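User:
I would dearly like some help making sense of a protein record. Take your time, and here it is.
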Amino acid sequence: EAQLVESGGDLVQPGGSLRLSCAASGFTFSAYAMTWVRQAPGKGLEWVSGINNGGSSTTYADSVKGRFTISRDNTINTLYLQMNSLKLEDMAVYYCKRGAVWGQGTQVTVSS
């Protein structure tokens, strides 16, 4: 059974950085593109970033472009999201997903 487990969420001040991780199991991780999405309090889901199966191609929402970096390590079946220069509006639950398979999410709180 495919499973995704996010970690790394925390409380951080505006301007700070966090790195989220997503550990994948139960499927051939290196064969699939992966995505990060987020949901801010009281708002709908927002696509954040995507990466192809090999890691050579990445895409970003305009709201995070230049501040966030998606990457993956196929040797340890892990997806990452490096988040720099965090803003109040980045506060959300962040999910990694592979198609219809979602993780449980990790909370990122941005507050001074």
Summary: The mean pLDDT is 97. The radius of gyration is 13 Å.
